[in-house]
Specification:
The structure is a single chain. This protein has two domains: 222 residues, Aspartate Aminotransferase, domain 2; 121 residues, Aspartate Aminotransferase, domain 1. Helices cover 41% and strands 14% of the residues. It has twelve helices and 14 strands. A seven-stranded mixed β-sheet has the order 1-9-8-5-4-2-3, with helices on both faces. A three-stranded antiparallel β-sheet has the order 7-6-12, with no helix packed on it.
Length: 359
């Protein structure tokens, strides 16, 4: 079976974990600090704050920017539900805009129409490893005095014109096992803002600036040194693994027939957390079954957009975003992870081409 995703773990991760277990310092400690420093360097920012998940990173970033009841956050409905749910966690309202049909990321040209007096932030989602149109978004945010929180949970190492995902304002990342790098489970917040960095660290640790003195309501959002040890080993592998993903994507781009391959505009550095095609003419589900019959994994990210989820309809009523809905009917993600062999890639291409062109 050619799997849709495969965490790349080796002796380095095993050794790092055992060193932590042998040290007796298992909770947040020196390995977390090392991981934060390395991640900040990777993103070319001053600060990185390690937390327990990507969802927590989003939640904490919103809290740090004092977003709460009565506020609105503009985001995409075509993403994993945690993006929008994190806005609900702080009792704010997610306001959706449609996507660019070529990149699957937020259509920046629609943002200003969604801004109201209650709008406090824009949360672009760097979907599939592709940075959103951050040049346009940052200009809109500056014009309207809005916070920008990047959902970069799928975009470790992605860039736009040389600027890394997570370096435009406040960034958030997931370190879930299937991401381009992992800490087994975890998340990271990135920022150049000293005040946001300080607030995140205080809230992350029960509202404490010094032990057992609680200045505000906080949470236990801390990462352990066990997870950070894995993260350190993974961070060292990220450049090579991203290069492999991009190489695999290039092979697909050059050889797949009958489907629409990912579009990457000039200046964008896609890291292919997912390699996502469009399948025309209502053939997507049949192609997926054909792949399954040939022992090739695939997945639909995402079959039901957030605005179509039951409890979002209950809260906000029926909404329509045509490009999102069309994408949900056509997208299919293929194996692109670094562990694929050349024969794996060739089998995926041959299986798809046989179905789409010769079938």
């Amino acid at each position: 079976m050619i799997s849709i995703a495969k965490p790349v773990m080796g002796e380095e991760e095993k050794k790092a974990v055992m060193e932590v277990l042998d040290s007796g310092i298992i909770a947040q400690g020196p390995k977390v600090k090392e991981f934060e420093q390395g991640f900040a360097k990777m993103c070319a920012v001053k600060h990185a704050i390690a937390v327990t998940s990507g969802t927590v990173a989003l939640h904490l970033a919103l809290l740090a920017h004092d977003i709460g009841p009565g506020d609105e956050v503009i985001t995409s409905p075509f993403t994993f539900i945690a993006s929008a749910n994190s806005v609900l966690f702080v009792s704010a309202k997610p306001v959706f805009v449609d996507i660019d049909p070529k990149t699957f990321t937020m259509d920046a040209s629609q943002i200003e129409a969604a801004i109201t007096p209650k709008t406090k932030a824009i949360m672009p989602v760097h979907l599939y490893g592709m940075v959103t149109d951050m040049k346009a978004i940052m200009e809109i945010a500056k014009k309207h005095d809005l916070v920008v929180i990047e959902d970069a949970c799928q975009a470790h190492g992605a860039m736009l014109n040389g600027t890394k995902a997570g370096a435009f304002e406040t960034g958030t990342f997931s370190l879930y096992p299937t991401k381009n790098m992992t800490s087994a489970e975890g998340g990271m917040i990135t920022t150049d803002d000293d005040e946001i960095n300080e607030i995140c660290r205080v809230i992350r640790n029960h509202g404490m600036r010094r032990r057992y003195y609680h200045d505000q309501l906080g949470y236990n959002f801390r990462m352990t040194d066990v997870h950070a040890a894995i993260g350190n080993a993974q961070l060292a592998k990220l450049p090579d693994n991203n290069t492999k993903r991009r190489s695999n994507a290039k092979f697909y781009n050059e050889n797949l027939k009958g489907v629409t391959v990912p579009f990457v505009p000039a200046g964008y550095h896609h890291v292919y957390h997912q390699y996502t095609i469009r399948v025309p003419d209502g053939k997507r589900d049949a192609l997926r079954e054909h792949l399954k019959d040939n022992e090739i994994g695939s997945e639909i990210y995402y079959p039901l957009p957030i605005h179509k989820q039951g409890f979002y309809i209950d809260m906000y009523g029926e909404q329509s975003f045509p490009e999102v809905e069309k994408a949900a009917d056509e997208v299919l993600s293929l194996p692109v992870h670094p562990e694929l062999s050349q024969s794996d890639l060739e089998k995926v291409v041959e299986t798809i081409n046989t179905f789409m062109v010769k079938g």
